[in-house]
Amino acid sequence: GKTALQKFSNFISSFQGSTPRDACLLSRCPSLSRASVYAVKLQAFHTSVPLLKKKPPQESETQELGRFRQSMKSLKDSPKPALYLSLAGLIPFVSVPLSMVVQGTYYPELAFTQLTYGAVIVSFLGGMRWGFAVPENSPAKPDWMNLANSMVPALIAWQALLFKDITDGAIMLVMGLGIALHYDLSLLPTYPSWFKGLRIVATLVAALSLLATVALKAYSEKNLIISRNGWQDPKQ
């Protein structure tokens, strides 16, 4: 026992007395000097900074674009009654500016009938949201948000009929159609894709028809002003 203990102590003393050629103390090692430690810290901070930078969120825009494409592709899957009735409902919108173009005359009476029909459709779109929130098993609850939003298109349609000028009323109806479309696409994601595609097409056709009537009205008024100036000036 004493021999083994003596050998172990001799081994420890010999190890402490000799230092390898490539070894160095931690306090004197050049690789761990104060400057090198700071450099390592700065390098670590520099490499970690790009990780902290936030990239601009583009997932929402990509998702909306994907939903739009899916809705347009699903338009062919629309039930025939819904598709045919929606197309038939666009006839009062399209027929007014088309008849004016064919006859070459702007008729204020026809423009007012188009405006009245547009107000009815905008009110119908708002009431459809109300009816969607009323059933017990509906994902949309009949709370203040859903029911109040369903009243907005109806109020816009009512305001459109109060304008004296057809142009102001038509622009108001275009805004109402856009708001109703936003409700159906963004706030009610449970609607089927084919219905959303149908709503997009119907809204675009109705809005363009109203704007076409406004353009025909402006063109007719411009020609009327030119003709009046010609009558007043005999030189022309």
From TrEMBL:
UniProt keyword annotation of Transmembrane present: yes
Keyword presence, Transmembrane helix: yes
Listed transmembrane segments: 82-102, 114-132, 169-188, 200-219
Pfam family, one: DUF3429
Keywords for the protein's UniProt record, in alphabetical order: Membrane, Transmembrane, Transmembrane helix
Superkingdom per UniProt: Eukaryota
InterPro entries: DUF3429
Matches recorded under PANTHER family: TRANSMEMBRANE PROTEIN 69 (PTHR15887)
Name of this chain's protein: Transmembrane protein 69
